[in-house]
Amino acid sequence: MKLLVVAATSAEISGLYQHFGLAEANFVQTPEFDILITGVGMTATAFALGTRLNPSYGLVLNVGIAGSFDHTLELGNLVNITTDVFAELGAEDHDSFLSIDQLGFGTNAYTNNYTSALPQVDRLPQVKGITVNKVHGNAQSIARIKSLFNPQVESMEGAAFFYACHQLQLPCLQIRSISNAVEPRAKENWKIGLAIWNLNHWLIELLSFLKNPTEFVRHQYSITFIKKRLVQGRYYYTTFTSNPDNEDIANHLANSDKRITEIQIEDIQKAMDGEAIEEHWGEVMGSQLEIFPKKGSVLIGYAKKTIPIGDFKQLLQEWLAFISSSPTLS
Ligand SMILES: O=C(O)c1cccc(C(=O)CC[C@H]2O[C@@H](n3cnc4c(=O)[nH]cnc43)[C@H](O)[C@@H]2O)c1
């Protein structure tokens, strides 16, 4: 299944280009996925999709940042926008608004139509979005649009994206990261960097998963391994998880250096072979580890997260392979 990733600006998916070693062009093709940068707004999106969208794509994915009307969504949170509305398309009727539907000229609301279960998508909250030409930044217009559509988020492209995919009947998803609250304009409150960071981590995890869903257990736990270059050519290895349930596991791995990881793998292997081991590791590397050979599970961290022993062994092996890739790590 080939994927088309659609974003308004290349800045919003800069981490993706970097991770896969791609040049920041407006249309990039790789064996597993293509990237299309449309430009900001509905017109630019419609034009770019008109030139590039075709039935060879198994999934079309719109990603970007968005403003939120919903106070339960924190800045930097990711959402799955399942319905998106052309909020300004229609006619004013004195104090009322007539949508394009009410005028009899079309449809103003479009939904995504991707039903396959992807763990990275399933764990995101599903929200209703509106698409606007003008970012809301005025108390009266915000109150008005809320009373008209009761939206949770807004963007400048989403509904146009759904419209184009709908025209070609292509499976599509719109995933956005909240960069700002929709409020009387206060640009200093926007967290664009955080929103883009989280979006890119999620995107890299999804694309790596689609590339090889069965190979990596870490993807089942939504854990991404990260290698950062420090000064003087040294590297720093850490982890990230977009699933709060797995934070203890991710931290445990990040805290395990090569030696500790090897010792854990040895003990886990012994436990799996029925040999006696120290089951109560207690606090190791700022994390709790208990091994239960009879139950076939391990407990990691203080949130009492228990996972199958085989999964833990494979996680450790993947981590060991990752951190062993550079001779600079002790
Ligand atoms: O500096 C500004 O005033 C400004 C206004 C809107 C967007 C931007 C951007 O840099 C991002 C463009 C991109 O972001 C989406 N976006 C983000 N927040 C909102 C929002 O509150 N309302 C509508 N769109 C938003 C949008 O989809 C654009 O593509 C800067």
From TrEMBL:
Family assignment from sequence similarity: Belongs to the PNP/UDP phosphorylase family. Futalosine hydrolase subfamily.
Alphabetical keyword list: Glycosidase, Hydrolase, Menaquinone biosynthesis
HAMAP family from the UniProt entry: MqnB
Protein name in UniProt: Futalosine hydrolase
EC number in record: 3.2.2.26
EC category name: hydrolase
Catalytic activity: futalosine + H2O = dehypoxanthine futalosine + hypoxanthine
Gene label: mqnB
Domain Nucleoside phosphorylase: 37-203
Pathway given in the UniProt record: Quinol/quinone metabolism; menaquinone biosynthesis
Biological role: Catalyzes the hydrolysis of futalosine (FL) to dehypoxanthine futalosine (DHFL) and hypoxanthine, a step in the biosynthesis of menaquinone (MK, vitamin K2).
SUPFAM superfamilies: Purine and uridine phosphorylases (SSF53167)
One example GO MF annotation: hydrolase activity, acting on glycosyl bonds
